[in-house]
Amino acid sequence: MSDQGATPTPTPAPPPPTGPRPKMTNRGRTAVPISTSNTESSEIPEFEPFGLPGPRGFPPLTDYLDILDVDMKRRPEESNKQQHHTMLYNSDYLVVRRGQEFEVKITFNRPYNPASDKFAVEFVIGSSPQFSKGTYIPVFPNKERPSPWEGHITNTADNTVTMGVTAAATCFVGKYHMYVAVVTPFGIRRTRKDSNRDLYILFNPWASADAVFLDDEKEREECVMNEMGIIYHGAFDDVAERNWNYGQFNYGVLDACLYIMDQSDMPITNRGDPIRVTRKASAMLNSRDDEGVLVGNWSGDYTYGVAPTSWTGSTDILLTYASAKMPVCYAQCWVYAAVFNSFLRCLGIPSRVVTNFYSAHDNDGNLKMDIILDENGRIDRSRTKDSIWNYHCWNECYMSRPDLPTGFGGWQVVDATPQETSDGMYRCGPASVQAIKHGQICFPFDAAFVFAEVNSDVVFYSRNKDGTMEPVRVNRTHIGRMVLTKTPGDMTRREITDQYKFPEGSTEERTVLEKAEEYGCKRDKSELPVADVDLILPTLEISVGDDFDMSLEFVNRSDELTSTEFLFRNPTVTIGPNKSVKESVTVESKNYMKHLVEQANINFIATGKVQETGQIITAMKVVTLHNPKLIVTVSEGGRVNEEMTATVEFTNPFSYSLEGVYIRMEGPGIMLAKSKYYSLIQGHTSLFWTEYFTPQRAGSSRVIASLDCPALRQVYGQASVTVQT
User: Fold this and answer.
1) In angstroms, how far is CA 247 from the centroid of its own chain?
2) Domain boundary among 578, 608, 626
3) Which of 68, 302, 510, 702 maximizes the CB count within 10 A of its CB?
4) Among residues 493, 518, 543, which one ends one of the domains?
């Protein structure tokens, strides 16, 4: 110990940390260890004595009721799975939904006598089951003793008793183990632990007492039961679509979803609340701060993983994450949304993928997309920080919101794409769609961020030589131009823009913006003069690799002769009073192909300056380049458990060869994901790939396929399939 005032010896700096970053938690304080694993469980003793054994031990129990067999009625054709809408889950175990009765058959060594025989069905979840925590639930027939779950005997025949059990509509979602316990004078004896008596309990949108109850059968069928999705992309005036196999019923997917919650260190006791589950999962679906499911990549280089455009479904991603126990490469917004959708539907939370065209990423939270122009009208890219996605995908899930005022339940936005941190982690939501529409952006969670994605203004600023900036043009209608999702029960699109905002310029919209401003969103209120000259860019249909002309139309709405400078080639265009002039710019493929990323879009931003008035004119246009298609054909006369074939045909339309080509193919309920690699496809040559598959169930489905290589992304094809019994 040094004397007071003496200089202490400096402590050397600790070495830099190595290994994976620690997981972030918001668990708070706790007196005992919290169970966060659904795979771990404790052994419950087969015999629990009421007292100490006598000198000869416990007497024989052969005279008392004994359990010989337990039938979980888990086969798909039995009533449990049929009534619980879980018959499609490819699982070895019983899958049921909370808030709804299911049955188990118990065979005793003799007929059950309710007057003298006492037994209970016990359910446990997690590593330290406790009655007080809701992780140990004994269920007694005919309400003999109080229990949070209901139970009653529905049938007796000889030595067999059929017990009806209704899990509480608020119980924890996950994998439970069931025991049957019999009371004897000397103690309780129960069945040995046997994995055959494991069961999964899910959220139940069919039960009115469940927080995810959705009282619309068509929406339920679409947003819980449908495995085939359509994800919209491209531009708002040239919408493209890709098919996606959510695969929420495929073998192993349910376990993978529960593993994701385990990896998040989410307490078992939080897993009955869809608000907590979806918020935690929106963080876990990306890998940014918690070693979650998917690694984002927007670089164009996907050497050490699968290109985002190559995926055709969620199954491979989820099973790979659960088996490798490390993040899967790579994803962009629609992959995050699609896999998140599989997670939500698998657990029973109604969900859908939504696409917002011209989606704002407001970096500074001012509800404005600030585009900085230099003194000549050119975009100053070093100072322009805000970004506009030509489209962005997120999810909506359906639930009540008891934490919000009445009226803000229903569809909630959740987004797993890592854009901004929320409470210290990369996640977003759940944010009430109704709150977003009505400007109530103070409500949790992240409503202000989503509000900006659909409501921001695009403000062009002119930066003067002295560094000052002044607004020169405001576009109040560019952001959130259109919001789409799939139509329930149909393979068409449905526009839901009106669910997010009122019509542009309406009285309701102005009221909403005023409400949002009360909570800190500041809009640009500059009253700028109407431009004398408009700049119009056309809608074009262009294929990848084509040269094309971009025609710019200048319209002079004034009574004066004006000359306008525009900056593709710096010419001057002279326009007569109330006249228009067209100027064409040739865009050659050799100039854009090397810069074309996987979305195959070219974003044109044309800016100009009217010499006479100094006014800035601008126009923005996304031109979607159309890729070649895959031709997918499926053999006719499909039947369950009978072999079929699917063939993919592709012709390289270019004069140059395509290298490092991957083709993927899969179909909901009929074919697991398959892939094939081609090192080279020469120019103007064709390939054919045929795969055999055996459909496992009847009905309508699709085989979807993708082709992907560094030189060509987003090549898709699909074929409809009808399988008979």
Assistant:
1) 13
2) 626
3) 702
4) 518
Q: What is the dihedral of CA 53, 55, 57, 58, to 10 degrees?
A: -60
Domain range for residue 231?
217-518
Residue 162's H or E segment, with its range, is strand 160-166
Instruction: Tell me the catalytic residues.
Output: 333, 392, 415
Co-location of 189 and 232 in the same domain: no
DSSP 225-261: I--EEEEEEEETTEEEEEEEE--TTSTTHHHHHHHHH
- Based on the fold, state whether residues 251 and 225 are members of the same structural domain: yes
Check whether residue 375 and residue 450 sit in a common domain: yes
The reported pLDDT for the residue numbered 115 is: 87
**Cis status, amide bond into 662, omega within 30 of 0:** no
Is there a single domain that holds both residue 478 and residue 593?
Answer: no
Check whether residue 622 and residue 652 sit in a common domain: no
Closest CA to 355 of 226, 492, 222, 233: 233
**Tokens standing for residue 326:** 């490390």
User: What's the pLDDT at 527?
Assistant: 63
Residue 504 marked as a ligand binder? yes
Is the peptide bond between 402 and the residue preceding it cis, with omega within 30 degrees of 0? no
Contacts of 341 (CB under 8 A, 6+ apart): 229, 246, 314, 351, 352, 353, 395
Distance (Å, whole) CA 354 – CA 429:
14
Contacts of 594 (CB under 8 A, 6+ apart): none
pTM of the predicted model as reported, rounded to 2 decimal places? 0.87
Both 330 and 396 in one domain: the answer is yes
Whether residue 445 has a cis bond before it, omega within 30° of 0: yes
What is residue 17's predicted lDDT score, i.e. its pLDDT? Answer: 47
Query: Both 537 and 620 in a single domain?
Result: yes
Instruction: Extract the runs of DSSP E, i.e. beta strands, from 464-594.
Output: 469-475, 482-486, 493-495, 533-536, 542-543, 548-556, 562-566, 572-575, 580-587
The secondary structure of residue 724, as a DSSP letter, is B
Q: Are residue 621 and residue 635 in the same domain, yes or no?
A: no
Q: Does the annotation place 250 within a ligand binding site?
A: no
Report the SS3 class of residue 676: strand
Domain assignment present for 19: no
Q: How many domains does the chain have?
A: 4
Q: Is residue 12 part of a domain?
A: no
Q: What is the CATH number of the domain that holds 650?
A: 2.60.40.10
CB 128 within 8 A of CB 288: no
Is there a binding annotation on residue 455?
A: yes
Task: Please report how the helices 507-518 and 447-455 are oriented relative to each other, as an axis angle in degrees rounded to 10.
Answer: 140
Which residue numbers in the chain have pLDDT < 50? 1-14, 16-17, 22, 566-567
Neighbours of 546 (CB within 10 A): 13
Task: Report pLDDT digits (tens) over 289-323.
Answer: 899 999 999 988 999 999 999 999 999 999 999 99
